[in-house]
Amino acid sequence: MTGSPSPSGAGPRPVSVRSDFEEGPGQGEPFRWPLGPFLLGWALSTAAALLVRWGGQSLLSDPCQGHTVLALLMPLLLGPGGLGLAASQWNNRPRAMFGLGMVMASFVPTLLLSAQDIGQLRNLGCAGGYLIVSEPGGKQLSEITLAAGESRELEGRIGGYQRASHPGTFLLQGQSMSSDLVVDLPKTAVHAGELFPVRIRAKESAVSNRFDWGVQAKYQPTPGESGNAAKIETSGKVAVTIILDRSGK
């Protein structure tokens, strides 16, 4: 079978073939994630977190009980919840960005406020106190080295409590794992936050070894304080390495 003759002087018509690699309408546009839903998710989540924080602090009458759960509640809800929403709606850009906004709100400002609230609980003594041993005017120590017959003058401090909320005294007691180490406490009763001297000495007959020593503090409440105050105890521990002389032998 013969097709219709082409017009005189005209060649065969070119056949247009569409390539799969050819860009369709809008395919040349850059890939963008909408910023509006992200900001909306962050703003609504932040507002919800602040509202829950304010409402919880208003309803909780006890200065300690329930506040840790309140501080951690919204970061734990917003973070995983936002990630789950973003993952399940990844093909829906606005909803995915809304979820990512929730995740951002779980960190800033929610987690920062939660860390601040927990720090305040610790200052009140709700999260337990602590006892640190340090160089005079220096940083906290975790280990020291002593030669046999040598002594060191250190200082201690009880933190995590405030004098206003815990007006009683802490009775101090030195503790050592070895009789070769002597822990001397010139002051045996101090208030919260008060610095006190600590002297640690290695006996002349001490053998080269590594031991733990520390200071224990037990709270003595004033009349009228709750009975639970008498159960407050805290301690600080430091490792000491005894050498025979300063050359390390």
Automatic annotation (TrEMBL):
Residue ranges under compositional bias (Low complexity)?
1-12
Q: Which domain of life is it from?
A: Bacteria
Q: Where is this region: Disordered?
A: 1-26
The record's keywords, sorted A to Z, are: Membrane, Transmembrane, Transmembrane helix
Transmembrane regions: 35-56, 68-90, 96-115
Protein's UniProt name: Cell wall-active antibiotics response LiaF-like C-terminal domain-containing protein
**Which organism does this sequence originate in?**
Deinococcus piscis
